[in-house]
Amino acid sequence: MKKAILILVLAGIAGFAKAQKVQAPQNGYWVVESNKHTPKQSIVKFYNLDNVLIHQENVSGKKVKVNNNRTRQALNNTLQLALNGKLQNEPILAMELSK
Fold first, then answer.
1. For the chain, what is the domain count?
2. Average pLDDT of 49-65?
3. Left if phi > 0, otherwise alpha if psi is -120 to 50, otherwise beta: which for 70?
4. Whose CA is closest to 63, among 90, 33, 41, 36?
5. What backbone torsions phi and psi does residue 27 show, to the nearest 5 degrees?
6. pLDDT tens for each residue of 65-96
7. Number of continuous H segments (helices) and E segments (strands) in the chain
């Protein structure tokens, strides 16, 4: 009986400790292009909802792991900067990912 209660308590705690999902942007999207032969070189393209390319960055020396919440947050932050017109061909994403 004690084991059953302990398992239920641990399962409840594990459910609450789940990682939070990163919210998807509503006014644009990004695409990561990479190659399996050169995984540490990627091209990230940022588009608005009219499918117009608004910013592009080359990321070298680091694999862009889009399943990582921190990486997706950096991609979304860079997208917002690009949508607001605050990027002037600056490698913002590469600096965000190197932190």
1. 1
2. 91
3. alpha
4. 41
5. -120, 20
6. 999 999 999 999 999 988 988 777 667 777 67
7. 3, 3
Higher pLDDT, 13 or 98: 98
Helix ranges restricted to H, 2-97: 2-16, 69-83, 92-97
> Tokens 């909802």 correspond to what residue?
49
Strand order in the sheet with 38-48: 28-35, 38-48, 53-60
Does a structural domain hold residue 13?
A: no
Q: Which residues contact 31 (CB under 8 A, 6 or more apart)?
A: 44, 45, 47
Give the Cα separation of 61 and 83 in Å (integer): 26
Q: How far apart, in whole angstroms, are the C-alpha atoms of residue 71 and residue 97?
A: 7
- pLDDT, position 28: 94
Domain that holds residue 73: 22-97
| C-alpha–C-alpha distance, residues 39 and 23, integer Å | 26
pLDDT in tens, 16-30: 555 556 777 789 999
